[in-house]
From TrEMBL, chains A, B:
This is Putative MarR-family transcriptional regulator. It comes from the Bacteria. It holds the Pfam family MarR_2. One of its GO terms (biological process) is response to stress. Residues 15-145 form the HTH marR-type domain. The lineage of its organism: Bacteria, Bacillati, Actinomycetota, Actinomycetes, Kitasatosporales. GO terms for molecular function: DNA-binding transcription factor activity.
Length: 157, 157
DNA sequence: CCCATTTACTTGACAGCATGAAATATCGAG
DNA sequence: CTCGATATTTCATGCTGTCAAGTAAATGGG
């Protein structure tokens, strides 16, 4: 049963172990995210949108792209945030078709507190030294196919 | 600005970078999971339950525990699997209150094919050497506070 | 300018997920 | 047997998500 293309088959035990670990991380991350959102009486989706809006007014369409869902879905989520005074809709002067969803002051505060309670992967990471975190970062970047951004003299594009 | 308790504050840039990467991994994992499920005309929840059932008949209550949701929710999910011939309910001879959800033959086949298309973190991991995967595994284990299981002579409980 | 097309958003219908409360059936202890 | 705990289901409700249809505004070719 030669594995001609590489040193590891898909059922390589080490790889499976890492896959399992990542599954665990994903599960725990979600769990904690929903929990943190619930603490502020938000659903996961609402928390994600509010997090986006706290970075600045955003067209509905862009929100849908970031959430990878249909724009019609965003309408409802922003409606619920709006009805709670956490977000508002503004008109884009540059294009009257678009509506910019923006966090209100209350919304920004909520988003801020939310961020503060998102301790996942901060707590756990505290157990690793700076060197280890660097190694972890580099491995994760390579896994994700991210080209690590050079500190300076970035090659264009 | 002394940070007396450790070498890194919660806003340490390196830590934030790793947190960000983990967020990316979580997002990608989910995306691919839902996609793989959809390929088999399943929702994410249905795929997760079917995956559980493919390992053996399971009481409804246990499914709820694994999914971290209310048992009443599981009823509907198993209903949908059952109406498609992927799962069935059996009575537990030992306790007539419990119903065991079990994958049918078709269900097991579907679960098998599903597993096969869950390529996330296998593809990406192919870019890492065995040594690197080992390092990654150890770091993730420590992050998760997992005591690495000894190869033998596991301490009980 | 005018019309067709495209783009941005909303609405409505519908399915699935998730919760909580209430009903049913069974178990197990006293 | 009776009481309390446990396992499941049903029902009502709300949120997320999709799709199809509709409105409004931008855009481009005649």
């Amino acid at each position: 049963m030669g594995n001609l293309r590489g040193m590891t088959s898909r059922t390589d035990p080490l790889t499976l172990e890492v896959v399992e670990l990542i599954g665990t991380i994903v599960a725990r991350y979600h769990e904690e995210y929903e929990e943190a959102a619930a603490k502020h009486a938000l659903t996961g989706a609402q928390a994600r949108v509010l997090g986006l809006l706290s970075r600045g007014p955003t067209p509905m369409r862009r929100i849908a792209q970031q959430l990878k869902c249909e724009p019609s879905n965003v309408t409802g989520i922003v409606d619920r945030l709006e009805s709670r005074g956490l977000a508002e809709r503004r008109l884009d002067p540059a294009d009257r078709r678009v509506k910019l969803a923006a966090a209100t002051e209350t919304g920004r505060e909520t988003a801020e507190r939310l961020r503060g309670s998102l301790d996942f992967a901060r707590e756990p990471l505290a157990g690793l030294s700076a060197d280890e975190r660097t190694v972890l970062r580099d491995l994760l970047q390579r896994m994700l196919g991210v080209t690590p951004q050079p500190e300076s003299s970035a090659p264009g594009h």
